[in-house]
């Protein structure tokens, strides 16, 4: 564990109200994070993400992949995707995330941001296929990036810095009351992979 990680209290709620966000700091050390980053970059079936916005189908620069216990169908941004079965690397990471958080997950969405010019705009992970108020665990690998929450009512924001190997958990009523985004930035030119472990209920 690195010195600056010693002060991290993963039981502290980073949101002032209406949800729970816990930051665990580094789940993986730098060597492990590099190892899994390289393996996932190479071995994942990456596809450009598609979304329907104002009735138009758009293709994002960001790439995604979807894995799970079963070939779950999962709909978000009005497009239905089918989960692929777990790889050895993903199962190892899932086990580490589960034992750290005490939660269980049956699926994982992976996002690949090739550089800081790619991000994800304001949204909540509140699709009907997801367990309501279920925990979502977010593991980051590669470039360090800011991550921001915005309250749907008051518009107050909470900004975090997600470093390589770090683990963040969103739970309780977070998705009902808060949006989140990964802002684009000119300061980052290297890639980042994010894994969000989730529970699908169909
Ligand atoms: O890349 C991230 O840190 C967040 C990704 C995200 O919010 C999502 O996949 O729903
Ligand atoms: Fe999200």
UniProtKB/TrEMBL annotation:
Domain Fe2OG dioxygenase as annotated: residue spans: 104-201
Signal peptide start-end: none
Stored InterPro entries: AlkB-like, AlkB-like_sf, ALKBH3, Oxoglu/Fe-dep_dioxygenase_dom
SUPFAM superfamilies hit by this protein: Clavaminate synthase-like (SSF51197)
UniProt KW keywords: Dioxygenase, Oxidoreductase
Example of a GO MF term: dioxygenase activity
Protein known as: Alpha-ketoglutarate-dependent dioxygenase AlkB
Organism: Snuella lapsa
Phylogenetic placement of the source organism: Bacteria, Pseudomonadati, Bacteroidota, Flavobacteriia, Flavobacteriales
